[in-house]
Design goal:
elongated, Immunoglobulin-like, 7-stranded antiparallel β-sheet, about 40% strand, about 20% helix, about 675 residues, 9 helices, Jelly Rolls, 7-stranded mixed β-sheet, 5 domains, alpha+beta
């Protein structure tokens, strides 16, 4: 009995150990230490002047504004004055080598032959100060625009995390030559046109390749970016690239944040199986013209054929919403205007099709509803888990119960989820309306055939109904992407279709401020239709779509065409009555004016235009009818013998009339025009 128990215990232990081994084989980390592959040496970088005269230094040209900042000197000065100062703020610790920094700023001299300038550029690096000045009496800036340049020698020094890099520009002894009234010297910076900068060598970041993670035949390779720029290092960098065995790893990496570090994880599926050594290299381009941070190392990995992974790394931390490229976004809104129990109702169905990093972030969030480990800064923090169990949460798959709970929570939280700085950064009020105005609202999610937490598009659908005031201005949609703190979205597409019933109207509908959107408004007896659409719309595009919903009988498509038809019919039958004994060919020709009135009606011109068009057409018909010549039946002239009755031609219409009497004077009526002809001889 004891032996049997021992045998059973031994078998269970073997099975348990085997199961643990199998599980660990499916998801395992390579036994290696993270390797810093870059960057012990400083890099040459352009630091752009941003902001006001007390501004910032930044390596990212994307932060340049459309409008330039400037400093203006209008009088000759003899004492030292500070033009501006700019600092870099946080610094990555490291060694600054001995070199020469170059400072360039744009200028313009106007209303003077030139300006003699004695200026000084001072560079504070940590505790050391370096400067360069223009030679007094030899630096003359000619009239017009140009660049003022300083070469600043810098000695070798070291930077700590608490250090700063500051640039200060001062001037004295500025004298205008041949000045006119309004002579001035302007200095410009901070825009794409005037990208004033200082170029030097400083440490920028460290690149660390962390332990590759093995999941079946998938290899997840994380790269940590340590820099003083935080997310900007990824969002505004020119490019980031990972290579395995000198082959670029394609696909969308997953980005997460750990403290001040950014971790970018690629999925590599080119492993041959078993144990192999791979060479991994990473490159990060901060600016289009450089510098490019590069490093490489080798890892020994072992892959297992256990069904493979999902093809997408599943992070423990909340993924970042952007790597700087932005996610594709497509928006479709279907609108219906109706009259329900004497009240105007607008129903809207807004469908947002989302792809890229934002879609992955949303999928990850649905799989973490009720996760108590989320930081308080997360837009998902504090969501009610509902019926979502611990087994369903963080399962890498979005179950139906998670979708249902997400939809319920979104009804209460969609404004924060969409508009919040940690959310979608889309103004929900401008896109779908304000929550307090809705009679009803429902939100649904379409995973588009893929329930896993992977890079796959999804749809977020808002269905709302609200009561609106008749004849009051209503804003259907306005600019909703103006608060982007980082490029979360690429340019987007927009399609709006709004329909009314035969007894309701959008009245004074219009598209304001936009050149990138097309706007069409048409009217048919069964209702009006508005179509707004555009492709590749810039996030900075301003637009407003407004209308004036009404149930006024004069604006209703059915009643309006009935009124127009009645006016035209009455006018036409009146014209027929007037021309009963007249020629009607001119009146019939003018029937071509009816399509003109129908065109005014179809293109949704105001009722005043439709009514005025109908009235003008009727007036033209009446004038034509009155002016038309009379029509007389042709009279059969009896054949007369050549020697019988005489004839006389009417002097008015030249109709030949027969003289049947010898009486003189004789009055006869012209058979053509009816005028009286008097014959006296």
């Amino acid at each position: 009995m004891v032996d049997n128990n021992r045998s059973s215990t031994l078998i269970l232990s073997v099975l348990f150990i085997s199961s643990i081994f199998a599980f660990s084989s499916a998801f395992d980390s390579v036994e290696a230490e993270p390797v810093q592959v870059c960057c012990d040496n400083a890099s040459v970088v352009d630091l752009f002047l941003l902001g006001s005269s007390s501004g910032d230094l930044s390596p990212f040209s994307q932060k340049l504004d459309t409008e330039s900042s400037s400093a203006v000197i209008v009088n000759s000065i003899t004492s030292q004055e500070e033009i501006g100062s700019w600092n870099m703020g946080q610094i990555w610790p490291g060694q600054v080598p001995e070199s020469t920094w170059s400072f360039t700023i744009y200028y313009k001299v106007s209303d003077a032959g030139g300006a003699q300038v004695n200026a000084t550029a001072t560079l504070n690096i940590g505790s050391l100060t370096f400067s360069a000045s223009t030679a007094f009496g030899s630096s003359v800036l000619p009239q017009g625009e140009g660049q003022l340049t300083f070469d600043i020698p810098v000695d070798s020094t070291s930077l700590s995390a608490s250090s700063d890099v500051e640039l200060v520009l001062t001037a004295r002894n500025i004298v205008f030559s041949v000045p006119e009234s309004g002579a001035k010297l302007e200095l410009f910076w901070g825009s794409e046109e005037h990208d004033s900068r200082i170029t030097g060598e400083i440490p920028l970041a460290d690149l660390i390749i962390e332990d590759p993670i093995v999941e079946g035949s998938d290899i997840y390779i994380p790269v940590k970016i340590d820099s003083p720029f935080g997310l900007d290092a990824l969002a505004y960098s020119d490019s980031i690239e990972l290579r395995v065995n000198n082959v670029v790893v394609e696909g969308n990496p997953v980005e997460t944040k750990n403290g001040d570090s950014i971790i970018v994880t690629w999925t590599w599926q080119g492993a041959s199986g078993g144990v192999e050594t791979v060479q991994i290299s990473v490159s990060l381009s901060i600016q289009p013209s450089g510098p490019t941070l590069f490093g490489q190392t080798s890892f020994e990995i072992e892959t297992f054929d256990s069904g493979g992974g999902t093809g997408t790394f599943y992070p423990q931390d909340e993924p970042l919403r952007t790597s700087g490229v932005g996610s594709p976004l497509s928006i479709e809104q279907i609108v219906e205007l109706s009259d329900s129990k004497g009240k105007l109702k607008i129903s809207r169905t807004t469908t947002m099709e989302i792809d890229g990093e934002m879609a992955f972030w949303m999928r990850w969030g649905m799989d973490h509803i009720g996760d108590t480990t989320l930081p308080s800064t997360s837009v998902l923090y504090g969501w009610n888990p509902g019926s979502v169990s611990d087994e369903e949460r963080v399962s890498r798959n979005i179950e139906s119960v998670e979708i249902e709970q997400f939809q319920r929570e979104m009804v209460k939280r969609f404004r924060t989820y969409m508009t919040g700085i940690n959310g979608m950064q889309i103004d929900s009020g401008e896109l779908i309306g304000n929550q307090g105005d809705f009679d009803t609202i429902s939100i649904s999610v379409d995973l588009m055939g893929e329930s896993k937490v992977v890079n796959h598009p999804l749809k977020l659908i808002f269905s709302s109904l609200q009561t609106v005031d008749s004849d009051e201005r209503f804003y259907l949609m306005r600019t909703f992407t103006s608060t982007q703190s980082a490029p979360l979205w690429q340019d987007y597409s927009l399609f709006i279709e709004a329909k009314s019933t035969g007894l309701t109207s959008f009245a004074d509908a219009e598209l304001l401020e936009s050149d990138d959107l097309s706007f069409r408004h048409s009217r048919m007896p069964w209702g009006e239709k508005i179509t707004v659409e555009g492709e590749k719309i810039s996030l900075s595009e301003d637009f407003t779509i407004s209308l004036q919903p009404t149930k006024n009988i004069l604006y209703g498509p059915v009643s309006l065409i009935a009124i127009a038809g009645a006016v035209l019919s009455v006018g036409f039958f009146m014209s027929l009555g007037i021309t009963k004994s007249k020629h009607r060919r001119f009146l019939m020709f003018e029937l071509i004016l009816i399509p003109l009135v129908m065109a005014i009606y179809y293109f949704a011109y105001p009722p005043l235009f439709v009514g005025a068009g109908s009235g003008i057409v009727v007036l033209i018909w009446l004038v034509t009818s009155i002016a038309s010549p009379r029509k007389f039946a042709e009279i059969e002239t009896p054949q007369l013998k050549e020697t019988t009755l005489p004839t006389i031609a009417c002097p008015a219409c030249e109709t030949v009339n027969v003289v049947t009497s010898d009486e003189r004077p004789l009055r006869i009526a012209c058979t053509g025009c009816g005028r009286t002809i008097k014959i006296v001889g």
